[in-house]
């Protein structure tokens, strides 16, 4: 319920912009992105930055652009030889606002399912759960079939682990991506 309320509030903030047409290359697209996870915390414990990459598919629906995808997020645990990674399955709704013939800015919110693993001292910890995210970015039409984008995404999730119980995940992802019309 908290996710629904936050999503409705975020979309409500963009309602005056709904009259602005989205700058999409085609009705259906695939996106490939690569970047970095930053400011990752698990239940208040800070992790070092790591690599992020993902794939998504999307399409415009009315005044919004909807997108579904999966991203791999990674981070290192400081001071010990350990690493953590997660698969983040996400669905998003974006509002695109044109700022010229080829450029646009966008903002959106979405739901996440996170499946995470951490390994250290020969032990493996698995955790999974649901969450939500918000994102902002900019896009530029490279050609009729390709759009490049830069995006910042903030992810929050409540995870559960059989080994250690409840965990809170808070992570930022900065990425560059390319949307290709299908």
Query: What share of residues are in beta strands?
Result: over 45%
Low-confidence stretches: 1-25
Structural class: mainly beta
Give a count of the beta strands, DSSP E runs of length 2 or more: 9
- Can you summarize the main beta sheet? 8 strands, antiparallel, barrel
**Radius of gyration based on Cα positions:** 17 Å
What does this protein structure show overall?
The protein has 182 residues and is mainly β. It is built from 1 helix and 9 strands. A hairpin with a 2-residue loop joins strand 1 (29-42) and strand 2. The protein has one helix at 2-13, and strands at 29-42, 45-46, 50-61, 64-77, 82-98, 103-120, 123-141, 146-161, 165-181.
């Amino acid at each position: 319920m908290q996710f629904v309320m936050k999503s409705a509030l975020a979309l409500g903030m963009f309602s005056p912009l709904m009259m602005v047409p989205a700058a999409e290359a085609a009705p259906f697209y695939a996106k490939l992105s690569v970047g970095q996870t930053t400011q990752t915390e698990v239940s208040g414990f800070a992790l070092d930055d790591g690599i992020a990459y993902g794939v998504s598919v999307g399409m415009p629906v009315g005044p919004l652009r909807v997108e579904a995808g999966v991203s791999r997020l990674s981070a290192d645990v400081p001071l010990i030889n350990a690493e953590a990674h997660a698969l983040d399955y996400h669905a998003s709704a974006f509002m695109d606002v044109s700022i010229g013939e080829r450029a646009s800015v966008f903002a959106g919110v979405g739901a996440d399912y996170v499946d995470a693993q951490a390994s250290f001292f020969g032990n493996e910890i698995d955790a999974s759960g649901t969450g939500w995210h918000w994102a902002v970015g900019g896009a530029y039409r490279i050609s009729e079939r390709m759009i490049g984008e830069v995006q910042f995404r903030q992810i929050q999730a409540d995870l559960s682990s059989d080994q250690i119980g409840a965990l809170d995940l808070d992570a930022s992802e900065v990425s560059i991506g390319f949307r290709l019309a299908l």
